[in-house]
Amino acid sequence: MKRSIFTPLIDEGLTTLKIRYDWKTDKSWVFAAKEWNDDIEWSRYNKDFYSESILTNDAVYLNDPQVRNLFRKYELLEYLEDVIGLLRKGKHFGMDCFYYREKDIRFMSNMHSVIYGINNRSQAIRSGGIRRHDYKDEEFEVIIDGLNLARAMSFKNVAAEIPYGGCKTTVHSGPVDLEDMEEIGFLSYALDRTRSFTGPDMGYPPELADVMKKNFTLNITGGPKGPLGPTGTPTAYGVYLAVKQAAKFKLGSDSLKDRKIAVQGLGAVGMPLVEHFLVEDAKLIVCDADDKRIAALKNKFPDKDIEVVDIDNIYYVEADIFSPAAVGGIITEERIPKMKFSIILGAANNQLKASSQEEEYKLARLLDKHGILFQCAWWHNIAGVLAGWEEYVNQDKADIKHILPKIERICTKNTWNNLNKAKELSITPTECAYQTAEKIIYR
């Protein structure tokens, strides 16, 4: 790793870095500290000590000028300002960063907003997934990804009608060892410090939720042993319902029979999503980096019309609908003119390659100019966070039946209304969705 906001922490024996930004005043603050000793036994978290415990007799606390001087010492002040610039660009609340020296784990909570959750009477006031990145991934790109996802979560939570602000946790580390209670204990402690509830995302197995809940914290959901299981299945159902509404709006019918649908990614969401499409006898074009997933799909549906293409070519196939269900940032200014879809509507978060609403608007308008109907994913990709919320609030009594009517209402009615309202206002569905939600988030 090259430039890193963790470098001053590592070299100065610190554990914590907090960055705050106020978009109303355009002021930023930074804070750093040593809050625990290196030999702390994280496996004893929530047994011998808690998230608010004093964990060292040798505490160090640095104020804003001291931290900026520290970054200047390491020739990283400009980098710090670049990170703050990202907060400014997306109107983010800030970041909480925690460092686990022994295992070189770099935990970053990217926080967009809190206004929708501050009075929700829960320990957690923000929600968003936890994602792991390999050390080879450049930190600045990881921060961009985390902040973009956190911003989308703020709006997704409003769309899902659940009282939480938005966040996203990104962790730079090696693959998680679910038998290592020191590592799991640290992740649990850091999560609880941020007052967030989460669910395993890319880079972490769903089983992480089960291990963390059993041993340390209830602020994580979506494990296989949970009452609702992984959230990919309800997420896929909600996106499927939204695709049908888009087809009705753009193509004149919500039937997907004989419609050609391109799907990128056959993971926890993509696989159940294509199964919904196949039930309606849609014609599929799919891709995935894992050949085993492709084989599993073709073995399960040997008689269905399924074409496989390279992952780099999925953007340019001829299809009625493109439904991304993998990584974000795939719809770029360069790719849009080459796309041959009538509709782009899928499950992947942050499909537009953008770091602010204004940049999203630019790409959404370009899609519209090329005749492609597009709606930002956070407006309809709400079933997963609803399932997480149901489990977080009701724990072992959680039941998909409690939220199924809400999923169906939001993904159908709200999608249909948004598409029609955007047409009436002569704006893109993405702009229309943002205008509706930002009144709540930014007041």
Brief descriptors of the model:
single chain, 443 residues, alpha/beta, Rossmann fold, nine-stranded mixed beta sheet, six-stranded parallel beta sheet, 15 strands, 16% strand, globular
Query: Could you tell me the number of beta strands?
Result: 15
| Class computed from helices, strands and strand pairing | alpha/beta
CA radius of gyration: 22 Å
- Label the overall shape: globular
What is the CATH architecture descriptor of the largest domain?
3-Layer(aba) Sandwich
Query: Mean pLDDT across all residues, rounded?
Result: 96
Tally of helical segments: 13
Distance between the termini: 39 Å
Low-confidence stretches: none
CATH topology of the largest domain: Rossmann fold
The major β-sheet equals: 9 strands, mixed
What is the percent of helical residues? 40-55%
Oligomer type: single chain
Number of domains: 2
CATH superfamily of the largest domain: Leucine Dehydrogenase, chain A, domain 1
Proportion of residues in extended strands: 15-25%
Look at the structure and give the CATH class of the largest domain: Alpha Beta
Order of helices and strands: HEEEHHEEEEHEHEHHEHEHEEEHEHHH
